[in-house]
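Milestone M4 deliverable, item 7.
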Amino acid sequence: MFDFDKAVKAYLLTFKEGPSDKTRIDACLDPQYAYEYAYSVDKCPRDDTRKAACEESFWAYLYAKNIDGCVRDDTIKAASKTPCFARLYKLNVDRKS
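Output delivered:
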């Protein structure tokens, strides 16, 4: 199960003390904050934040759309667990097929 409280605290701590491996690991305890960390703190894709975001379809879709900017097997598999996000992925990430 996700540890929302620890993830939120880690994410917020980065704005006070700066990013670190410890805060990233803790942020990855929740898919939303893994995505938020990659988007707002790292500002680039990483395997650890992507893996954590892929625990839920919505965050996998947003990670692919806003951070990776391309189709990846792991994000499409995770987003496709929910028909709505599978469709959004197809429309907004995988535009070519």
